[in-house]
Amino acid sequence: MNADSIELLSLIGENKAVFKIPVYQRNYEWKEKHIRQLFSDLEKIVENDFKTKHFLGTIVFVTRKKRRLSVERILIDGQQRVTTTIIILKAIYDCIKADSSKSDILADEILETYLENKHVNEESKYKLKPVKTDESSYYDLMNNQKSDSNIYKNYVIVKNLIDTSKHSIEDIFEALMNVHIVYIDLDDGENPQIIFESLNSTGLSLTQADLIRNFILMGLDYDKQTRYYEKYWVKIEELLTNKIISNFVRDYLTMRENNVTKKNRVYEQFKYFYRTNDYYAENILAELLQYANFYDKIINESTEIANVNNQLSGINTMKSTVTYPYILEVFNDYYEKKLLNESEFSTVLKLVFSYIFRRYICNVPTNSLNKVFSRIGKETRKKRSEGTSYIRAVEEYLLNRTGNAKFPRDIDFKNSFFATDIYKRNKNIAKMTLYRIEEKSHKELVEDIELTIEHIMPQTLTPDWNIELGSKALDIHS
Fold this sequence. Notes:
six-stranded mixed sheet; single chain; 59% helix
């Protein structure tokens, strides 16, 4: 490892150097406020007569020598700052070229030193190779094409700031030469994850999913990162958003370990799970993709079985995400292990829904549900190993819960059902309840998405209604 302070432009301007942003990194995300702050810092350097330096932070990369003396810098940390600096350089270059009174000498220097490499193959032509989702908009900018991208929007902001600045283009460029960074250059054999975690120990707005993706892919060579990212992670992201991926991995870990994973410990728990179970990058990604497909079907109620979707709809209306770890296991048992037939698959989910719904009606505290659904898989597998059928094992487990984990019996449910104002507690659950009753009465039903709850009497009694109902109007209305 080498570490030192250096002018950022000296690093970017190194002959035949290309900064490659690994596929696991986020897109370019700097906002207008970040651009304006950096430009203001550059103007302050000019105003201080170039006697001050501006420290922009730390940049971490792995250096790889290529053929014909070219150099690849694989950016582990600092891609936002490097990308922004190159956007500023492009804006300065274009402003000089657009002003006929300016000499092209500085513009040519910027182009040939900081934006492009000379005497290299096409792949190494540009100083920066962004993540795949930013590639087209970045190359559009380099080729003077507009795009509806964050990269182009920030370029326009910089150009406007240059045009309206009281300082010359040449001064802004010279100020940029006073921007310093600390670089950490890792050897190929060093583990970049350790440095990355140290730099991002405060969170730095990275989600648990970001950290997990980086952990899996970071230690691989660039080509393998790209291949696994496109084969597995992109597909996971297409099924689930970044925020949902964090929840998904938490539920996956709870299912696999039969123990509840805390929301702020998903990344740490994932690393422990990965290492203690001797996973390697491709097999954990393949397994995550398999379960991500299940998760997508669960949250979107989109299996090919109508009865299963109906039960999932009920569970989701109850917002009972605590059941997801176990439902993931049930999906795997049906689709992969073939332990259930279609009817049994639906019946298990019906039992889960009944348990959740009865408890809601009976107003049973929910604080025990995490434990119930983190352990149900392990306990029912044990019962099945002793000869109990799949359905019976689930029934026995749920019916044998006690205390706050109890499964309300019929008499308790009936009494609570007549006494509970479901509508006042949750209108969506009231609507679902009425629809479930309707299902038992009619063979042909309209889509429940079209239905609304109508009141037999107005929610607030009018004078006419008070007269109609007489002296006991309020009691009758209630």
